[in-house]
Amino acid sequence: MIIRVWRGWTTPENADAYEALLREEITGESVNGEQTPGMLGIDVLRHDPDATDDNSGAAADDSPAAEVEFSTIMYFFDWDAVRAFAGDDAFAAVVPDADRALLTRWDERSRHYDLLSRNGQWKTLADG
Questions:
Q1: Parallel, antiparallel, or unpaired: how do β-strands 111-114 and 2-10 relate?
Q2: Beta strand extents in the chain (DSSP E only)
Q3: Are the C-beta atoms of residues 76 and 85 closer than 8 Å to each other?
Q4: Which is deepest, 13, 51, 68, 74, by most CB within 10 Å?
Q5: For the whole model, what pTM was predicted?
Q6: Number of helices and strands (H, E) in the chain?
Q7: Rounded to 5 degrees, what angle do the CA atoms 109, 78, 70 make?
Q8: Which of 74, 6, 63 lies closest to 35, judged by CA?
Q9: 55 near 24, Cβ under 8 Å?
Q10: Residue 86 dihedral angles phi and psi, to the nearest 5°
Q11: Exposure letters 43-81 (e unless 16+ CB within 10 A, then b)
């Protein structure tokens, strides 16, 4: 299993609109359907800024950089399924125009991980 992680940030003012857009784009029918064969699932995470955040991204006037972060964690059967979703450059972020209009910035490249263990069930080395 290949796990694909991507992040995007928006303003607090646009966060609810972006979440609503994601709710329209990501549905039960869109996972492992005709558009995304081999996608086994997707998790969407939202983090609103709070007092524990690192403000190293603060603006030049020293005001806190208040951005809402969204992360997607996608699960794919194999690399062919990742390429079916992302295209020839499997690491390129897939950010539709409607998303770009609401985001202030995003990861240009997605990160991919091999799943080693889920709930204490370890993949054996023989599983590849």
A1: antiparallel
A2: 2-10, 39-47, 68-76, 105-106, 111-114, 117-118, 121-122
A3: yes
A4: 74
A5: 0.84
A6: 3, 7
A7: 40
A8: 74
A9: no
A10: -95, -20
A11: eeeeeebeeeeeeeeeeeeeeeeebbebebebbbeeeeb
Query: pLDDT tens across 13-52, in order?
Result: 999 999 999 999 988 887 877 778 899 999 999 999 887 7
Instruction: List, for residues 81-119, the tens digit of each pLDDT value.
Output: 999 999 999 999 999 999 999 999 999 999 999 999 999
Q: CA 61 to CA 102: how far, in whole Å?
A: 24
How many CB atoms within 10 Å of residue 2? 19
Q: Which two tokens stand for residue 39?
A: 């996608």
Q: How do the residues of the chain divide into helix, strand and coil, expressed in percent and rounded to 5?
A: 25, 30, 45
